[in-house]
Amino acid sequence: MTKNTAYPHLMEPLDLGFTQIQNRTLMGSMHLGLEEEKGGFQKMAAFYEARAKGGVGIIVTGGISPNFRGRLAPFGSQLSHFWHVKKHKIITEAVHKYPTKICVQLLHAGRYGYHPFSVSATKIKAPITPFTPSELSVRQIKSTIKDYGRSVKLAKKAGYDGVEIMGSEGYLINQFACKRVNKRNDEWGGSIENRMRLAVEIVKEVRQSAGDDFIIIFRLSMLDLVEGGNTWEEVVTMAKALEQAGVSIINTGIGWHEARVPTIATSVPRAAFTWITERMKKEVKVPLVTTNRINMPDVAEDVLAKGHADMVSMARPFLADADFVIKAAEDRAHDINTCIGCNQACLDHVFKQQRASCLVNPVACYETELTFEKTTSPKKLAVVGAGPAGMAFSCYAAEKGHQVTLFDKADEIGGQFNIAKQIPGKEEFYETMRYFTHRMEALGVEVKLGSEQSVESLKQGFDEVVLATGIVPRKLDIPGIDHEKVKSYIQVLKDKEPVGKRVAVVGAGGIGFDVSEYLVEDESLTTKPEEWMKAWGVDKNYEHAGALLSQPEFHKSEREVFLLQRKTTKVGAGLGKTTGWIHRATLQKNGVQMIPGVSYKEINDKGLVIDIDGKEQLLEVDNVVICAGQEPNRSLYQGLLDAGVSTHLIGGANVAAELDAKRAIRQAAELAMTL
Fold it and tell me: Which stretches are transmembrane (predicted)?
C-alpha cells in the first residue's frame, strides 16, 4: 500500500507484541444475514475478502453465538462443534490472501434472543423482544463460560487471528454487568465486582484456551445510555479487570439496543462519542478502539491525532466502500463512497431477518451476484435524469465499458438528493453528490446539465435510452388546493419559499417527516455535538448512572406544525425500523402534533378544514404543505417506444409510490449488469 502522508496516524501500524496490525482501522462487527443463508459462507468470504483487499487493519465478523441458547434467532449461527470449523475456514482463507487480520465476534444474545430458549442474569423481559428469558443457574453460568472457551479453540482451528467478545449493546454480558437486568443476590450479582464476574471469567477462559498469540478484543459498554446502567467508576473498574484478565484490545460500546438515544443514525454528529474513549485512555494501558459515526479519513485521522483512541472502528463505512482504506492511503478521499448513516439497507434489513446491503453501494453482500464485467459489445447509452438512479446507472454502465451520456434539465446533478440534503441531520447527502461527481468524471461519463431532452433528440445516436426522470407531484383533489396558502414540499425544501408560524403538513410518509423536521429545526444539531448531547439527555460529565441526564435540555421550536395522514395507523409506522423512532421523537420534542385518520375537506382563507371520526374541525394555519401523492415522470416513455427506441425505466420513473433511493440505486445496478 502507498505510504501515506495525508493520514499518518490512521495508516500507522499497531504493534500488539505477538502480532502487528497494518493500520489503525477496525471493521466493526455487523450481522450480514448471510450467516444463515444457503451458500452464505462463500458469499461472506467474497464480502470480507473485498474489504481485506481494500486494506482494512482488523475485520470483526458478525456475531456468532458460543452456544444454542445464545443465538440471536431460532436458526442463528453458533460456533460450538467441530463441523462448524470447515465453513469458517472459507472466510479466513479468503481474507488471509492479504495482510488483514480477522476476528470472529462471539455474541451471546441473552434476553435479546428472539426465541423461547433465551436466558439472562434475571428473568426480566427486554422491551425489544416478545420472549421472557429464563434466569441462568450458577451451573449454567459456568457452562456458558466453558462454551466460550470451546468456541475460541474452534475459532483458532478455523484460522481466525482472534475473537471479539461482545460485552456491550445490552447483550448477555452487558445484562450481567448492569443493575438494570441483574437483580441476583449470589456471587454473580450485587456489587460491580460480582456483576462483572461473568465478563472477567470469560476473558480468562478465552485467554487460557487460545494461548498468548491470539487477539482478544473485548467490546465494553462505556456508555449504557439506559436507566440502571453503570456509573463511570463501575465502567473503569470493569475495564481494569479486563485488562488484568488478558484482553489485547478494548473496543468502545455505546448504548443498549433499547436505549432512547440515537447512536449511529445520520442525525448523530460525526465522531460524537470519541470523548468517552479518550476518558478511558487515562485509566488503562491496553489499546482502545473508538467508534460511531466515523465515516471519512479526515474524521478518523483527527480522532487519532488528538489521542482519543489507538484505533477507529468503522462498520457501515466499509459496507459503503470496500476500498475505503486504500483510497485514504493514496490520498483519494474524494473517491470514497461515504456511508450516510441511513440504516435503510443494513440494520433495517438485519432486524427484519433480511440480508444486509447498502443504500449507496448495492454490491455490498452481493459481491458474487452483482458483478460488472467488461462488455464485449459496448453501446452508446443515453440516461435522462441525474438523480440517484441515473447517476448510479451511469457509473455502473460506464464501468462495464459502455459509452454513457447523462442528461438533466436542471443545472446540477442529484435530483431528489438535492432536496434530501436540506433536511437537518441529512447533510451527508452532500458526500454522496461529491462521490458521484468524481466517479462519473473518472469513468468518462459525459454529463450534460441544463439539457432537456425530447423523443426527437434521443431517437437517433443512441443504442438504448434509460429514463431516470423521477417523479412529478400528484395534484390532490381537495377543494382550495390552488389557494395561495398551499405549497409543495419542493417549493419549501428546494426553492426555500417562506413558511408561516402555523403549518399543516399533508402526508406523513418519509417526505412529510422530512418537511416537518425542516420546519421545526432551524439549524441542525449534527453540527453542534455539545448541544446534541444535551438535547438527547447524554450526561458528558457522567454524574449519573448510564450517563443519562435526569432531564434533556431541548429548545422547542416556536413554529406550530400539524403532521396529518389519511391512514388510521400510527403516524410514522412505515419509517425505517431502526430510525423511525428517532424521527418521531424529534417531532414530539418540538411539539409537532401527529394526527392519523384525517379526511381533507377544504383549504380556505382561514386554514385547512379536516374531518376526524366524523367531526369536522378547522386548523387555522398560515400554510399547507403537500407531501402526499406523486406519479412516475414518464413523459418521454411512450414516444420513445413508438419510435422504436429500446427504453428502460428506473427509479421514481418506474415506481413512485414512496421515493426510495435504496431501490432506485439497486435497480440501476441490476439494469447495468444486464446490458
Answer: none
Fold of 8-350: TIM Barrel (3.20.20)
Q: What is the pTM of this model?
A: 0.95
Q: Tell me which H or E stretch contains 557.
A: none
**How many angstroms separate the CA atoms of 49 and 95, rounded?**
5
Whether the per-residue pLDDT at 629 is higher than 80: the answer is no
Q: Which fold has domain 475-522+557-628?
A: FAD/NAD(P)-binding domain (3.50.50)
Distance CA 451, CA 596 (A): 42
CATH 3.30.450.20 fits 380-472+631-674, yes or no: no
C-alpha grid cell, residue 356:
444486509
CB-count burial class (<10 Å; 0-12, 13-18, 19+) for 212:
exposed
* Domain range list for the chain: 8-350, 380-472+631-674, 475-522+557-628
Q: Which residues are catalytic?
A: 171
In this chain, the answer to whether the domains covering 380-472+631-674 and 475-522+557-628 adopt an identical fold is no
Please report the beta strands in 157-214, taking only residues with DSSP state E, as ranges in sequence order: 162-167
Distance, in Å, from the CA atom of 300 to the CA atom of 274, rounded to the nearest integer, reads 10
- Say if residues 207 and 249 touch (Cβ distance below 8 Å): no
| Alpha carbon distance 673, 493 (integer Å) | 34
pLDDT in tens, 173-184: 999 999 999 999
Q: How far apart are CA 93 and CA 55, in angstroms?
A: 16
- Alpha carbons 291 and 250: distance in angstroms, whole number: 11
Task: Kindly report the three-state secondary structure assignment for every residue of 77-88.
Answer: CECCCHHHHHHH
